[in-house]
Design goal:
alpha/beta, Glutaredoxin, 5-stranded mixed β-sheet, two-stranded antiparallel sheet, 27% helix, globular
Length: 156
């Protein structure tokens, strides 16, 4: 993918993707057709905000599972990093590896950011709920971690 990423709107067809998780299993949106998917993008394994967000989804995992919802976390980290992060925090859902940022770009979560007046490219913490029909049902951008997993659960 090249150029600027587009903003996805409610009702839009969600971009298909193919990405492996921490075990090497390949996940595609197409293979998940008929299921509701929570696709959440986060900057980095092991950082305080990302750990809090992952653990928040973990702590509500049974409630998502009861609704037959698939949770997938995505970051540019390696499979090895994901495996360690997942094991350390007993995360029950897959973490997808996106080193080339293809999935991040397709969903508009790879953005120009700034810190201390310096511009750089990075992950915008974002969550997408994709319905069984493959369409975007809910979008949360610039996510504030506290209460986020619960608000996503309430949106489905």
């Amino acid at each position: 993918m090249t150029g600027k990423s587009k903003e996805l709107s409610l009702g839009a067809k969600a971009p298909d993707f193919s990405a492996s998780d921490e075990t090497g299993r390949v996940w595609t949106l197409k293979a998940l057709k008929g299921k509701t998917v929570v696709l959440y993008f986060y900057p980095k394994d092991g950082t305080s905000g990302c750990t809090a967000e992952a653990c928040d989804f973990r702590d509500r995992y049974d409630a998502f599972s009861d609704k037959q919802i698939v949770i997938l976390g995505v970051s540019p980290d390696t499979a090895k990093s994901h495996a360690g992060f997942k094991a350390k925090h007993a995360l029950p859902f897959p973490l997808l590896v996106d080193p080339d940022k293809d999935v991040l770009k397709a969903y508009g979560a790879w953005k120009e950011k700034s810190m201390y007046g310096r511009a750089y490219m990075g992950v915008e913490r974002s969550t997408f709920v994709i319905g069984p029909d493959g369409r975007i049902r809910h979008v949360a951008r610039k996510v504030s971690v506290p209460g986020h997993a619960q608000s996503i659960l309430e949106s489905v």
